[in-house]
Amino acid sequence: MNSEAKTLNVVVLGAGSIGCYLAGCILAHNGSTEQSAPFTLTLIGRPRLQQDILSNGLTLTDWQGRNDKVVSDAINFTCDYDALASADFILLCVKSQDTQSAAQIIQKHAKDEATVISFQNGVTNGDVLTSELSQHIVKGMVPFNVFYQGNGHFHCGTEGHLAIEDPDSICTPVVDLLERAQLPVTVYGDISSVQYGKLIMNLNNAVNALSGIPLKQQLAERAYRLVMAEVLKEALFVLKAEGISPARTGKVIPKLMPTIMMLPNFLFNIVAASTLKIDPQARSSMYEDLQLGRTTEIDFLNGEIERLGKKHKIATPVNSNIIALIKQAQGKNSKSPMLSAAELLHTPVNCH
């Protein structure tokens, strides 16, 4: 290693489940070796997580057997934004509904030369950031699910490679950190179709949150899969009207997903065994949001399908019903309502 190499300053803004998992993996696998360039990594997040992590350190596990640990002394977790001033790269991991406020924070605290990588759900965050900020904005996509199990333990329950739109290879230093952390990154010249492919996958987040059961169990029940088939049919129809062809984000081709969801259990199990790798513990981030009484990303997921449907005068009744059910659960602050598949097809009463 060149002793005169410039230290790379990386900040995770919005250190929740995804942000802590990415940061923890980086810290666990990028020590002081000849192959590792000097870097600092700062996490900015909520006081609740700060206290958990300072008390317990970080434990990072996944469905393939990862078991990384980072002691609290090696973790720089803060609740203020001063660290943004020296950041070369900002990994933005806030919820989509917080993108606008995060942009204001970055504008106030970060240097103009910083690069912001949006590792967020939804398809509009990159454009919002570009319209608000002078910093270089890189669109990204996180394919996998991470669930916080408490005491600093973050578990990744599904598979997939990170993706970024970086035709000029500006993000190579961060890609190197992620690759060494056993978090493969696929770099694209244009990530739009990949983001819509992830959106298609994320439409199940609300179904899982409303069911209140683990993802693998939910998908094992054909009644819930039939609901998902209708959600996906509506989504693919409005995306086609918009001229969008979603790319696969794993082994499943988006346009085949409704057919796969409708298969009888014995056939679905055969297909799922080779295409859908899901840990029995995995749940959607939206389920976690309901459990913690937080606002969900429903407007940026199923809500995007409803919006495009209205734009093209195409009805999206199943997606609209699910949006209404999520918002009713949020309004009552009642955690997951644990609804049956049949209940997901009916609009809740007194929900606007």
How are the strands ordered across the major sheet?
Answer: 5-2-1-6-7-8-11-12
Kindly estimate the percentage of residues that lie in beta strands according to DSSP. Answer: 15-25%
Share of helical residues: 40-55%
Order of helices and strands: EHEHEEEEHEHEEEEHEHHHHHHHHH
Give the overall shape, derived from the CA principal axes. globular
Q: Return the structural class.
A: alpha/beta
- Stretches with pLDDT under 50, minimum 5 residues: none
**Average pLDDT figure:** 92
**Ends distance:** 59 Å
Structural write-up:
This protein has 352 residues and is of the alpha/beta class. It is built from 14 helices and 12 strands. The strands form 2 sheets. The chain has an 8-stranded mixed β-sheet with strand order 5-2-1-6-7-8-11-12, with helices on both faces. The termini are far apart. The mean pLDDT is 92.
Compact description:
The chain has 352 residues and is an alpha/beta fold. The chain contains 14 helices and twelve strands.
Fold blueprint:
Elements: E1 8-13, H1 17-29, E2 39-44, H2 47-56, E3 58-62, E4 67-70, E5 76-78, E6 89-92, H3 99-109, E7 115-118, H4 125-132, E8 136-141, E9 146-148, E10 153-156, E11 162-165, H5 172-180, E12 185-188, H6 192-202, H7 204-211, H8 215-220, H9 222-242, H10 257-262, H11 265-275, H12 285-291, H13 302-311, H14 317-332
Parallel strand pairs: 1-2, 1-6, 2-5, 3-10, 6-7, 7-8, 11-12
Antiparallel strand pairs: 3-4, 8-11, 9-10
Please describe the structure with a list of short key phrases separated by commas or semicolons:
352 residues; alpha/beta; eight-stranded mixed sheet; 12 strands; 14 helices; four-stranded mixed sheet
